[in-house]
């Protein structure tokens, strides 16, 4: 086992070669850092290193970039309350002949229950009625089984609310596809409600990550006098690249419905935790000030 104190691309790639690494774990932001590292670091990499990614919904563009470098990416999903990976994006042999773009889209889905998981469903957050497996109808992810926590320490009120109806409420909004694989659309607290329409911040971020000049992106809600809220995009550019807000919005216009377009674009580095997670609550505060 190799442990690094900091995520530094030079040290990570050096460790891959020096220690003959076969498997590693990293949040999507770590994969994005490695994918966008100097091309000289990508040389002499052994193909087939297996990557387990979790902690946030990875954009398909990031998965594709890692696969192009020869990595084999597997996504898992869970929470602290579910002993980590409750769901795994299990690969199926019948997908082997698909294009890299198609494979990346499939791997961007969170997946199906792991063998240890117990039960998982996507259902209406109040009635707990399962949603249709149509890949479109949204609901909350619910879980139960022997790797789900018993409750919150000395907090019976929070425990009761979390297990209302006999299922653990994840707070994640998802869809379920006909093959039983789920895909997270947003945290319930991150959904943007604009003019009565629910907008997934993850969907907009996935589009932004496809732009070749954009290194990182995050989308949050910003107050809007007319619509209630609108999407505000925070964008970090690739080194030496520039874009205008109009160019970012026009790129989104080619890939999203009009009501989902970001109306505000802020350029600069994203605020993150020590583990690389984007601090969306801080971005929401910043969005209200611009």
From TrEMBL:
Q: Which residues form the AMP-dependent synthetase/ligase domain?
A: 10-153
**Which species?**
marine metagenome
Q: Tell me what this protein is called.
A: Acyl-CoA synthetase
Question: Does this UniProt record's set of keywords contain Nucleotide-binding?
Answer: no
Q: Which SUPFAM superfamilies match?
A: Acetyl-CoA synthetase-like
Give a Pfam family name. Answer: AMP-binding
Q: Does the keyword field hold Ligase? A: yes
GO MF, one example: ligase activity
Indicate the segments forming the AMP-binding enzyme C-terminal domain, all copies.
203-277
Gene Ontology biological process terms, A to Z: fatty acid metabolic process
Could you tell me which InterPro entries the record lists for this protein?
AMP-bd_C, AMP-bd_C_sf, AMP-dep_synth/lig_dom, ANL_N_sf
Which family is annotated?
A: Belongs to the ATP-dependent AMP-binding enzyme family.
Keywords, sorted A to Z: Fatty acid metabolism, Ligase, Lipid metabolism
């Amino acid at each position: 086992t190799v442990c690094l104190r900091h995520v530094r691309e030079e040290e990570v790639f050096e460790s891959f070669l020096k220690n003959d690494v076969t498997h590693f774990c990293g949040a999507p932001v770590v994969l994005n850092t490695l994918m966008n590292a100097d091309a000289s670091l990508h040389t002499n990499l052994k193909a087939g290193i297996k990557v387990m990614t979790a902690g946030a919904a990875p954009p398909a563009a990031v998965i594709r970039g890692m696969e192009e470098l020869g990595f084999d990416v597997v996504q898992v999903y869970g929470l602290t309350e579910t002993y980590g990976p409750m769901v795994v994006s299990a690969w199926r042999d019948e997908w082997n002949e698909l294009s890299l773009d198609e494979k990346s889209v499939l791997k961007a889905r969170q997946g199906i229950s792991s063998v240890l998981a117990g039960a998982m469903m996507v259902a209406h957050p109040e009635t707990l009625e399962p949603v249709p497996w149509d890949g479109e109808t949204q609901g909350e992810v619910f879980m139960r089984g022997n790797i789900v926590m018993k409750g919150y320490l000395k907090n019976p009120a929070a425990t009761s609310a979390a297990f209302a109806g006999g299922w653990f409420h994840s707070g994640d909004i998802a869809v379920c596809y006909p093959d039983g694989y789920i895909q997270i659309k947003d945290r319930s607290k991150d959904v943007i409600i604009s003019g009565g329409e629910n907008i997934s911040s993850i969907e907009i971020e996935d589009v932004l990550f496809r732009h070749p000049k954009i290194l990182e992106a995050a989308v949050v809600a910003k107050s809007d006098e007319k619509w209630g809220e609108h999407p505000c995009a925070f964008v970090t550019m690739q080194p030496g690249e520039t874009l205008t807000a109009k160019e970012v919005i026009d790129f989104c216009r080619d890939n999203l419905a009009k009501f989902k377009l970001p109306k505000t674009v802020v350029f600069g580095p994203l605020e993150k935790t020590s583990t690389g997670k984007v601090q969306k609550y801080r971005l929401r505060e910043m969005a209200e000030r611009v």
